[in-house]
Specification:
422 residues; 15 strands; 13% strand; Aspartate Aminotransferase, domain 2; 16 helices; 2 domains; seven-stranded mixed β-sheet; alpha/beta; Aspartate Aminotransferase, domain 1
């Protein structure tokens, strides 16, 4: 007798969850995703995430596991490693980190002892929580000093970074963040790190896909170690990767990931990473990366033409940090108004904001998911105009249910129908 465990569909087993998953699928179909840390994965990636490899437990690395039955999963993980090295033209890759934050933690565990000094970009200036922000483990265990951006133009303050490095003499210098839209001078960071004998970590979680596509400079020739996620511009599953050209350092990182930080491998995610890397090695992905940057710039130009300030003056990546405070709107209000018409973004701190999210005056916008959907510069110019229309409405105190919102919501729905997903 066949067990229903292996045959019953989700809708029969748990109709509540099945219904909610269906609603989420429809939300994604009917909304234009502008959150810079999100993208839309292929059916192939989704298939790997839902495959029976989910049932398998292993610890360790290919050829050296703590569990039997690893014949095929060893090949899959090695495929992911080899493809990552080829994609980023590097000598070492670890594909096991469950997230970008845990990839960063593994680097900290490899290179630092509690109390060691770290220099990174401040969270307020666009850095990342896991680089040493006070609420995070990294900020609690290490002596963290942060550089920022120039008040005059929102660009990275290299002079301040170099001054801090000379003054603090950190063991680790970090470049990269989650809300900084411009390219980074990795060579200058390398020189600063070398001046005090520090290691250099570049977190390219946001722009990794652009590096893979050749649309952004690679940090690997300059950094001791590079971390990234496979989501965002790389258009893969949720998970982290650690890269380096230093084989000896790589062996230490392996030990930091397991057994230092993590236990068993999320093999379904590793399989999906392997698929993601294969997709990113195709010529079509190079075209995609170039289009992502062009689309972000088109959206930014449309917003600037309507009088909105872009922190950093624009973008070299997929990301825009938009000042809405000058229009008399908070980030919370802007996020809510845009979501009502099917434009999904997130509130974000700007360099001048206090720590409390309710007082933030920025929103972060990204072009990756819309580009995956098929949007070009014409569509993103229109999206930028629609964003400006909604935010001008919000600034004027015109809120839910007004005819302008209904008109824009209908246009967003029309765009989604013209460029369908799933």
């Amino acid at each position: 007798m066949k067990s229903a465990l292996f045959t019953a569909p989700l809708a029969a087993v748990d109709p509540e969850v099945a219904d909610l998953l269906g609603k989420e699928r429809e939300r994604q179909r009917q909304s234009i995703e502008l959150i810079a840390s999100e993208n839309t994965v292929s059916h192939a990636v989704l298939a790997a995430l839902g495959a029976e490899i989910n049932n398998k437990t292993v610890e360790g690395y290919p050829g050296n596991r703590y569990h039997g039955g690893a014949e095929f999963v060893d090949v899959i993980e090695q495929l992911a490693i080899d493809r990552a090295k080829k994609l980023f033209d590097c000598r070492y890759a670890n594909v096991q980190p469950h997230s970008g934050s845990q990839a960063n933690q593994a680097v900290f565990l490899t290179l630092l002892k509690p109390g060691d000094r770290v220099v990174c970009m401040s969270l307020a200036a666009g850095g990342h929580l896991s680089h040493g922000a006070p609420p995070n483990l990294s900020g609690k265990w290490f002596d963290v000093h942060a550089y920022g951006v120039r008040a005059s133009d929102g660009l990275l303050d290299y002079d301040e970074m170099e001054r801090l490095v000379r003054e603090v003499e950190p063991k680790l210098l970090i470049a990269g963040g989650s809300a900084y839209p411009r390219s980074i001078d990795f060579a200058r960071f390398r020189k600063a790190a070398d001046s005090v004998g520090a290691s250099l970590l570049v977190d390219m979680a946001h722009f990794a896909g652009l590096v893979a596509a050749g649309a952004h400079e690679s940090p690997l020739p300059h950094a001791d170690v590079v971390t990234c996620t496979t989501t965002k511009t790389l258009r893969g599953p949720r998970g982290g990767v650690i890269l380096s050209n230093d084989g000896a350092l790589g062996r230490r990182i392996d030990s930091a990931v397991f057994p230092g930080l993590q236990g068993s491998v999320h093999l379904q995610v590793v399989a999906a990473k392997a698929v993601c890397f294969k997709e990113a090695l195709q010529d079509s992905f190079r075209s995609y990366g170039t289009q992502v940057v062009a689309n972000a710039r088109a959206m930014g130009d449309a917003l600037a033409a309507r009088g909105f300030k872009l922190w950093g003056g624009g973008t070299d990546t997929h990301l825009l940090l938009l000042d809405v405070g000058s229009k008399g709107v908070t980030g919370n209000e802007a996020e809510a108004a845009l979501e009502r018409v099917g434009l999904t973004c997130n509130k974000n701190a700007t360099p001048r904001d206090p720590p409390r999210p309710g007082h933030w005056t920025g929103i972060r916008l990204g072009s990756s998911a819309g580009t995956t959907r098929g949007f070009g510069t014409e569509e993103f110019t229109r999206v930028g105009t629609l964003i400006a229309d909604i935010l001008d409405n919000a600034a004027a105190g015109v809120h839910r249910g007004n005819p302008k919102e209904e008109e824009i919501g209908a246009e967003v729905a029309s765009l989604c129908r013209a460029f369908p997903i799933y």
